[in-house]
Amino acid sequence: MSQPATFLARLREVVGMPHVLTDPGDMALYLTDWRGRYTGRAQAVALPANTAEVAAVVRLCMEARVPIVPQGGNTGLVGGGTPDGSGTALVLCLKRLRTMRAVDAANNTLTAEAGCLLVEVQAAATAADRLFPLSLAAEGSCTIGGNLATNAGGVQVLRYGNARELCLGVEVVLPSGEVWNGLRGLRKDNTGPDLKHLFIGSEGTLGLITAAVLKLFPRPTASATAWLTLADPQAAVDLLGAAQGRFGSRVTACELLSRPVLDLVFKHFPAQRDPLPGNAPWSLLLELSDGGDDGALRDVLGEFLAARLESGAVLDATIAASSEQARRLWALRETAPEAEKREGISIKHDVAVPVSRVPEFLARAAASLPQAFPGARILAFGHVGDGNLHYNVCHSNAADNPALLARQAEVNRHVYDLVAELNGSISAEHGIGQLKRDQLPRYKPALELALLRQFKRQLDPLGLMNPGKLFPDPRDA
Amino acid sequence: MSQPATFLARLREVVGMPHVLTDPGDMALYLTDWRGRYTGRAQAVALPANTAEVAAVVRLCMEARVPIVPQGGNTGLVGGGTPDGSGTALVLCLKRLRTMRAVDAANNTLTAEAGCLLVEVQAAATAADRLFPLSLAAEGSCTIGGNLATNAGGVQVLRYGNARELCLGVEVVLPSGEVWNGLRGLRKDNTGPDLKHLFIGSEGTLGLITAAVLKLFPRPTASATAWLTLADPQAAVDLLGAAQGRFGSRVTACELLSRPVLDLVFKHFPAQRDPLPGNAPWSLLLELSDGGDDGALRDVLGEFLAARLESGAVLDATIAASSEQARRLWALRETAPEAEKREGISIKHDVAVPVSRVPEFLARAAASLPQAFPGARILAFGHVGDGNLHYNVCHSNAADNPALLARQAEVNRHVYDLVAELNGSISAEHGIGQLKRDQLPRYKPALELALLRQFKRQLDPLGLMNPGKLFPDPRDA
Known about the structure:
2 copies of one chain form a homodimer. By secondary structure, chain A is an alpha+beta fold. Helices cover 36% and strands 20% of the residues of chain A. In chain A, a hairpin with a 4-residue loop joins strand 5 (100-104) and strand 6 (109-113). In chain A, helix 1 (4-15) runs antiparallel to helix 3, helix 9 crosses helix 12 (336-343) and helix 13 (358-372) packs antiparallel against helix 15 (408-421).
């Protein structure tokens, strides 16, 4: 049982009085996720300053049987950082672990503490004439520790991989309060299984990542951005294959938008213009990045696209002639989520299927959803190069939307069952958290979940690490 | 206790009479590693045909308490696939699991069973106009299951990563005999920790990988290969950084050779010629790969090197004008191990340090080794782009070599202690097996080893999965 008075007093001794928040007003920011979808309660919010303090807080919580809810920038989309309503938890916020411990340009690595903001990591890389390619909408407020705990994705995964693939080593405070120093910066280390992958993507349920060695890359000096129209998603998959065949990993973005999504962008952002005429059913943003200069890269992209225009594989295409024009093309993609939001609430899905099955998924879902849910309007866009689609569903008449939203669980199951049939994932980049926890047993092999539960019990026998997240409720098991 | 008669009879029922070998002559090939360094005994060798049979064999072994030694192509360098001398073990060879289950060019994936040879996987990728980039000397006889169990490296890790990074999903027979189907072919799947990494690189101690989904890549159509001479290793690290800055991931190989190594190549392979005059202390093989054609790639590489010749960063350089010339440059690198072998036995080290610390490692080891071991001659070459050096030591007088070899343990410790001081790895790509098992506790954090042991006990409570490999003897723990 928790003994609040003693526990809080000892907590204040460890992290210092000003860094233990108990006033409801002070705590509020930490108890609700940024979209306001989840709200919880906590006995306190602790903000330790370094790894040793984190370890001491964890030991204290274990002794006092206080559940720990780890938090970074609190920008997650699945309620992974919000405590439950019991008020027993401690929110353990890592934002004060903010030291950039090392930048090693010749090794293409950077060692950052968990609380460093993603933009700060990007800036430290840039200052060393390198690129840290993780990039996502919340980069100004999310932390690298949160990015790793949730294995964040974003717009450059096609070329550089997600957070998991950008990490060479980690420092982890285990639920026992012990600190594992796995901060290796090696491209090759064949001394057994790679344990960091158990903690990356664990959403704070198995341990707390307090620092990490991250991969850096050469900073591209040139880019070429094209906007194309296509007859169907198969043409997008084919074009991606051809572009990768010609340009290899210089293909750094391949983003697909359906006509209904683009129409919403023009409706809610009247300043945006369609770069190409013809109201084609599908549009694609394709970007190359390289060393060298923009002109040469635009030339080879132009040659590549000209051949495909001639063959009819591409309906129409334009290449940005300046970085300002490129920025405007990107704005079409980047305003899509906000345009959808302004149109009204929709049922969202962040799913992935093998790239080769994107066309089948889109065709089958477009046929079956309106049949099962009459009037359903589908808004599909996303990182087609990763097989990752943001697949959102609302009613074509705003007035009927509440009735559709009331059937959200059925819509989810309809979409996820098709994703599963195509060997896909019900969470491509946002994670599980509270949002998808109870759906996991339907889609993850039972044996894999059983293995995860075994590791969880072994590492965290008291079940105090971010309870209620990721792992389906033990009572449902 | 094992009951051989019953056990063998049941084993024959499961995999069929012809696929259980007990005759010493039939078993011999499986009981000694290919270099003849390790020999063991076994009660039988079983060759199951598919995953279900593997699972049945594992269950049988667990019931009968028979240790299992998994084996692929038996090409390992650390004794990981050789049983001990007790004769109690079953060698479980996966060579008959040879189905190429699927090739999905549009998804850039291939699903192969564990017993497929690496060359067969490469060929299946080529047939689909794709590249499977894992490439190493044993590729004609090693299996993809063995490559994954040992996280194999090779000459293209710089660009494409090692076996771990080339794998998207696995099918694993657990020590319980249960089969985990983790055969996902997704670039994004954020539904929890990624358990495949526990089995990849576990050397068969935690489970048996029976099939895998592998990443494919566009097949480069152009390459440009240069041979350079350099004043010192720092010049090599600087050049690599500059080349990656200009060419990004088109830099696919960066291999360093010291003058003593090159001299041995010329001594034992008189047909080989030095591509450049001047007997420079260090030589570097640099290769670019790309779509497009060879000529254009050679031109940009030529421009890049011309500027560095002018500045003095590079002493001399030549670019292969044909694929035949490129092949001859590669032959200098590829014959280095054989040239060393012909010169006599040496004490070998397969180590890695951060790329930025390669110069420091080479300088300090070159200074301290001959001091500690008078007459020591150092033969260093390797994948400098990964920080991975093959760092071999022998005596400069052949007659005194036996005396140096007698001090192998001291030489190892000297080299490994320096590697550890520089945050390196004592096994960059060859693994641990029997060879380095007892050195692991000195160089791997105790807490990491303790975690590994916990997972081992949980997955394999009877300790029957490849006992004596990777994990330091429990009595030493």
